[in-house]
Amino acid sequence: MAEPDHSQPGQSTPERQFSVQRIFIKDVSFESPNAPDVFRGEWKPAHELNVATKVNALQSDLYEVVLSVTVSAKLAEKTAFIVEVQQAGIFGISGFNDQEMGAMVGAYCPNLLFPYAREAITDLVSKGSFPQLVLQHVNFDALYAQHQQEALQRAKDEEAAAPKPH
């Protein structure tokens, strides 16, 4: 992913590079605490989806991004199942400024990892003897933008609440 050089003559801009080194499951959990009772009634569960990401710098230009996806299904007050997958990847990323780097590890990498997590969740739910569950796509670009906006608002709120020097 090389970008054209728009710098002044004599200045060098580092070339942008992105590579996927490895994609792997870091952790997986499936629980069906109320089985077999949950199989006896009508299957009309309420689902809850939670996603989170974590970034670990491994070394210069090498990052581990961990996407945690948790899905729970409840029938009335009884939990039918809880499944959690931590899908991870190791990515080589260089030549991006700080703002671009945030978007790479906060949105682009999770977008790459999500299909793997979705497949693992679908497989686990099916093996738990529940009807197939296929998660809809998550817009990580929008989630990242929302997170950035919330962080900016928190910073403004903290600044406004800070005591002013006299």
Write up what this structure looks like.
With 166 residues, the protein is of the alpha+beta class. It has one domain (17-161): Bacterial Protein-export protein SecB (Roll). It contains two helices and four strands, in the order ββββαα. Strands 1-4-3-2 form a four-stranded antiparallel sheet. α1 crosses α2. The radius of gyration is 21 Å and the shape is flat. The protein starts with 16 loop residues before the first strand and ends in a 5-residue tail after the last helix. 16% of the residues are buried. The mean pLDDT is 90.
Any chance you could write out the topology, listing elements then pairs?
Blueprint: E1 17-31, E2 46-59, E3 62-75, E4 78-94, H1 98-127, H2 140-161
Antiparallel strand pairs: 1-4, 2-3, 3-4
CATH homology group: SecB-like
Strand arrangement in the largest pleated sheet: 1-4-3-2
**With helices defined by DSSP (H or I, 4 residues minimum), what is the helix count?**
2
Percent helix, as a range, is 25-40%
SSE order: EEEEHH
Measured by DSSP, the beta-strand proportion falls in 35-45%
* Mean pLDDT reading: 90
> How does CATH name the architecture?
Roll
CATH topology: Bacterial Protein-export protein SecB
* C-alpha-based Rg, rounded: 21 Å
Number of discrete domains: 1
Tally of DSSP β-strands: 4
Report, as a whole number of angstroms, the end-to-end distance.
51 Å
Give the biggest sheet. 4 strands, antiparallel
**Structural class by SSE content:** alpha+beta
Low-confidence segments: none
What global shape is seen?
flat
CATH class, named Alpha Beta
InterPro entries: SecB, SecB-like_sf
GO molecular function, one term: unfolded protein binding
Subunit structure: Homotetramer, a dimer of dimers. One homotetramer interacts with 1 SecA dimer.
GO biological process, one term: protein tetramerization
